[in-house]
Amino acid sequence: MNKKPQRTKNRGHRENRGTFGKWLFLITVGLFTLFIVRFAYIAINKDVQHVNLRSQAEQIYTQQRIIQARRGDIYDSEGNPLATDTSKYTLYAVLDRTQKSSDGKPLYVKDRKKTAKVLSQYIDLTPKQIEKILKPKGQVYQVEFGNAGSNLSVSTMQKIKNRHLPGINFIATPARQYPEGEFASQIIGMATPKVKNDNGTEETNLVGQLGLEGYFNKQLTGINGLRKDKQDVYGYQIANSKQVTKKAINGDNIYTTLDSQTQHFLENKVYKSSNANAMTAVVMEAKTGKIIAATQRPTLHAENNPVWRNMLVQDAYEPGSVMKILSLAAAIDTGHFNPNATFNSGTWTMGGGKITDWSSSGWGTISYKDAFDMSSNVGFAHVEQDMGAETWMKYIKRFGLLKKVNVIGMSNEVNGYTSFKGILAQANTAFGQGITVNVMQMMQAFSAIGNNGKMMKPYIVSKVVDGNSGKTIQKVKPKVVGQPIKASTAKKVLGYMQGVVYDQKGLGHDYQIKGYRIAGKTATAQIGGAHGYLTGDTNYLYSFAGMAPAKNPKYIMYVTLRQPQNLKKPATKQIASVFNPTMKMLLSQQKVAEKAKKKVITMPNVVGQASDEANKELSGKGMQVIVVGSGKKVKQQSAVPDEQVLTDQHVILDTGGEYKMPDISGWSSADVQQLAKVLKLKVKENGNGYVTQQSISPDTTIKRGTTLTVQYEAKN
Considering only 270-279, 350-359, 472-481, 608-617, which range has the smallest mean pLDDT? Predict the structure, then answer.
């Protein structure tokens, strides 16, 4: 019997599927377990691949902003700012048409033609040039406008903003403002923006480059603050989130000794007389060393060949015959000067060389007093030989030459140098050749002559004030740095210096100022070059050191003129055009101040009062009140409140509005200068004494910046 065939089961295949299913189940359970463990780890430790998720979330939702610290200001002696913080702005235009406000208004440049026309009124580009910039090739998010759209002032930025141009925006950059422009620019220096990237945060800070800005950069620079707060994805602050704020610390403020009126006066005079390769002028108080004005040409901002250094300490030069002031003092102090003794002038052969007077033929046999009046090099070579090289070098050092003065605020000073080898080189130094100095060294040495033998260290910074608390943290006081000569010697030297200006044989007649006695010394120094001294009439350094009043100097003024290019006007007259009016102004002010000491009151503050009331109050105190302007209230007064003033002096009250010229007949130069300061007038003064003529008639309407010419005559 045949059996039916039976179907054979594939047991191996079933077993394989079962095994696969088991492994799949195990893998799924394993992966699920791994995910649970990993998620648990992340939840507990908040870390993925060494990245802290909590910290990362904090960074994403935390807004961090720099709080800009204010750089300290620099002031003159009266507290007027010479350097202060401001902002400069860079103009840019958004072109991306997807940029819209929450209410759908365009935040991009919508009308190129109109935008170009408006912007051309404020930046130095034509409408066509601006349209071209606003229509770049390809897709551009935003554009800038090059140099024409950079360094815009606050006022220009605000004017453009007020035109409400869609898509026009600004980037603010910290900047430094110098309200007085060329005012002592080599002393004030400059600060420029510098970008710093700190831990991903970009900061732009001002950094001092030179002058006081560079010297005090650390003190002037504040410490920026920081503000952090949490925001949601829309930029709104998250409720109940903590704000972290680090306060900004402002920089310290620097106060200088510069008197703004004298400085402006000096700047103006030097500018008009600076037809030379270089010029310096410094005014210092003889008894204190306080520098009240100092300038140089060229300046930092000169159009041609600007000078990025302070020539008062960074330039070494051979001073010429002003050195005879010091060699004369040394000779008198050591008993080696006989004014009546004589010598043969012209030339003197010594030490393998020859010493020659400025007039090589000389003046025959002359006295040593005449040698000083007539600036004889031969005479002072004899003086040096008589006292001896060792003694003379001792006095060179006692007067502070060949080493740094270290004026606070002036860096990179040169020492000066002399080889002082051989009798010829040693004798040359007695009349200022073969030895180099800087201006501040000479000012310091001159102070010993003007201050009864006591030598004062020059200073130009009076104090440093904390920019946050207002407390003075550093104060600079007058400092005696030696007494190189006796007081009696100093008085004798001043007498001989008067002879230079007033004796018939003296070379300083151009420096006489009517009504005042001047002590001074002229100088003409050869300029050294690579192959010896330069030749030609223009290759000299001319200078004058003057002190006044001569018997008891209040001021020392030193002017140098290097390589004048136009000798149609003699160098002495060019220097006198700077020295004479500046010294005259100072002496006139001193005379008024001395008169005020005899009968003084404390000046009240009448600013803000009605002009009639203020006039009545001051007149009642015996003052001569002059009200200028058509306003009803006093905006400023010429005399500083709480200062001691003369009861019968002129006090000018400025009420603003329209100004008319007062009658200034009988006014002193100091009174005229006060009026000029209030009305912003330029003054030309002729003569000496009191006003007899004025170029602007009384009751004439005047504008600020007008020139007023005044004629003075002395009272009989």
Answer: 270-279
Phi, psi for residue 700 in degrees, rounded to 5: -85, 135
Q: What does DSSP assign to residue 527?
A: -
Question: Nearest Cα to 348, choosing from 334, 362, 328?
Answer: 362
Residue 289 contacts residue 458 (beta carbons within 8 Å): yes
**CA torsion, points 327, 330, 333, 334, in degrees to nearest 10?**
-110
How many C-beta neighbours within 10 Å does residue 530 have? 5
Query: DSSP class of residue 301?
Result: T
User: Which candidate in 321, 611, 638, 669 is catalytic?
Assistant: 321
Query: In degrees rounded to 5, what are phi and psi of residue 520?
Result: -160, 175
Q: Does the pLDDT of residue 176 top 90, yes or no?
A: no
d(CA 275, CA 562): 9
CA 410, CA 174: separation in Å to the nearest integer? 25
Compute, in degrees rounded to 10, the torsion defined by CA atoms 638, 641, 643, 646: 50
- DSSP codes of every residue in 195-244: EEEETTEEEEEEEEEEHHHHHTHHHH--B-EEEEEEB-TTSPBPTTPPPE
Query: Collapsing DSSP states into helix, strand and coil, what is residue 704?
Result: coil
Residue 253 CB burial class (10 angstroms; 0-12, 13-18, ≥19): buried
Per the rule left: phi > 0, alpha: psi between -120 and 50, beta: everything else, 423 is alpha
State yes or no: pLDDT of 116 exceeds 90.
Answer: yes
- Specify the DSSP element, H or E, that contains 21: helix 11-45
How many residues are given for the chain?
716
For residues 211 and 179, what is the distance between their CA atoms, to the nearest angstrom?
A: 16
Cβ(442)–Cβ(546) below 8 Å: no
Q: How many CA atoms lie within 13 A of 134 on its CB side?
A: 26
Element (H, E) at 19: helix 11-45
The pLDDT tens digits for 465-480 are: 998 888 999 999 999 9
Cis status of the peptide bond prior to 174, with omega within 30 of 0: no
CA 89 to chain centre: 24
The pTM for the full model equals 0.71
Gap between the Cα atoms of 350 and 619, Å rounded: 72
Return d(Cα 131, Cα 95) in angstroms, integer. 12
Would residue 665 show up in a list of annotated catalytic residues for this protein? Answer: no
Strands (E), 258-364: 276-285, 291-297, 342-344, 347-350, 353-356
Q: How far apart are the first and last CA of the chain?
A: 174
For the chain, what percentages of helix, strand and coil (3-state, to nearest 5) are there?
A: 30, 30, 40
